[in-house]
Structures are given as C-alpha cells and as structure tokens.
C-alpha cells in the first residue's frame, strides 16, 4: 500500500529544487537594455503618406502626437514628471536641453523646435526628407 503523503512530498521536493535552480540561474542572467522600436517600424509610423520618405512635417507631426500623449493635464507644456525618463520627476539632460528658457517646463513649441533641429541634423543630403538609412543613424 502506498503512502498518500509521498507524492506530495515528492512534488514539494521537485518544486523546491526547481525554484532553487531558477533562483541561481536568474542571478547569472543578463537581461540587457529595454526593447527599442525597430527603425523600420518607427519609420513606417512616421511616413504618413507611405511614399518611402519622411518629410519634416511628417516627422514633426509624429513628435507632436508624442508630446500630446505626455501632456497628461493638457496644459500645453510638460514637466519633468510628465516626461518618461529613468529619473521620473527629476529633470534630465534631454529635458534641460529642450527647456530653452529654463522655466522648468517644456512647451510644445520648445519640444518641436528640438525635434526640428534633430531632423535637420539627420537629413544628411539636405533634401528635406529622411530615408530609412538616415533615420537609422539617429535616435529618438
């Protein structure tokens, strides 16, 4: 006759061994940086008319939508705590760079001016459009 407690003990022992193995393995795992939107997917989302290039207007329209999503209270400006950063609530270098007048807020115009400069810097051949190659060489 078998003891009804034996299968439970065996299951508990196996579960404990598995958890110990998982705990030890996780300490050695390197999960790396958070996922990034693939450049082609980002490019497609910006290319509103689907002509294979992103104009400055399409680029700025894309970033205007990002601004609107961050501006939770819809006051036309974002503060450091509305901007997604690792240091929530504390200004970071990007926020400081965007806040041209240093008033602790970034207006939509300041935000778009920043991205207009990024567009100009990325447009290597100065044709007023970004290709996938030009976009892949930039960030944000």
- The stretches of 5 or more residues where confidence is low (pLDDT under 50) are 17-35
| Molecular shape | globular
Classify the helix fraction into a percent range.
40-55%
What's the end-to-end separation, in Å? 68 Å
Number of strands: 4
Indicate the structural class: mainly alpha
Question: Which whole number gives the mean pLDDT?
Answer: 76
Q: SSE string, helix = H, strand = E?
A: HHEHEHEHEH
Task: State Rg.
Answer: 25 Å
Strand order of the largest sheet: 1-4
What is the quaternary state of this protein?
single chain
The largest β sheet comes out as: 2 strands, antiparallel
Measured by DSSP, the beta-strand proportion falls in 5-15%
The tally of helices reads: 6
Q: Could you describe the 3D structure shown?
A:
The strands form 2 sheets. Strands 1-4 form a two-stranded antiparallel ribbon. A two-stranded antiparallel sheet has the order 2-3. Helix content is 52%, strand content 6%. The protein is mainly alpha-helical and 140 residues long.
Task: Name the descriptors.
mainly alpha, 140 residues, two-stranded antiparallel ribbon
Summary?
The protein has 140 residues and is mainly alpha-helical. It is built from 6 helices and 4 strands. The strands form 2 sheets. Strands 1-4 form a two-stranded antiparallel sheet.
